[in-house]
Fold this sequence. Notes:
The structure holds 2 protein chains of 2 kinds.
Chain A: E1 4-6, E2 10-13, E3 19-21, E4 23-25, E5 31-38, E6 42-49, E7 56-57, E8 65-70, E9 73-78, E10 87-94, E11 104-105, E12 109-113
Parallel strand pairs in A: 2-12
Antiparallel strand pairs in A: 1-4, 3-9, 5-6, 5-10, 6-7, 8-9, 10-11, 10-12
Chain B: E1 3-5, E2 10-14, E3 19-21, E4 24-26, E5 32-39, E6 46-52, E7 59-61, E8 64-69, E9 74-79, E10 88-96, E11 108-109, E12 113-118
Parallel strand pairs in B: 2-12
Antiparallel strand pairs in B: 1-4, 3-9, 5-6, 5-10, 7-8, 8-9, 10-11, 10-12
Amino acid sequence: DVKVTQSSRYLVKRTGEKVFLECVQDMDHENMFWYRQDPGLGLRLIYFSYDVKMKEKGDIPEGYSVSREKKERFSLILESASTNQTSMYLCASSLLRRDTGELFFGEGSRLTVL
Amino acid sequence: AQKVTQAQTEISVVEKEDVTLDCVYETRDTTYYLFWYKQPPSGELVFLIRRNSFDEQNEISGRYSWNFQKSTSSFNFTITASQVVDSAVYFCALSEAHDSGGGADGLTFGKGTHLIIQP
């Protein structure tokens, strides 16, 4: 089975702190994604990557950056956390660049920024 | 721009009732994919189904069935004889397949429908 693992289920940070959210998948998937989920807004795409060192902006990239140095790992970075970034963050992966296959999701990281 | 609308924010039914979750989508592409995901209280989204735009055949999987109608841009999901374990948030999603080589640009999700099955 595909496993997408997010490093932290719950984080509490202070405004202005730098935050790293890590995601690792173990099935050699090409594509990786970061979404945030907020009540009443559903899931919104922040960034995605279809190859090592490649990244593309999603619908709401402002205030975030990403890093993909290895195929299995996709990190989401909040350079200076703000209270409006309090949210549930979901990492996902899918197999092939040239196929719209299903996404496999991690369990999510719930971030609270005080 | 693509868009997915799930007009039902929350649905509550009694166990064993049938329930239909609505999904309406918008896209300018002729080739696209539709998905349904389930998010139980544990939080991890679970894939249920993928449909491509050229396959309008309805699908049944146990108590689950999906009705895809391009004429109304809808992809509705029905649970027959609902059970308490069906309680979850259900998301409908859309992905367009671009000419550049596949739709790896992520999915556009609806806002979700919270389904509550009461015993």
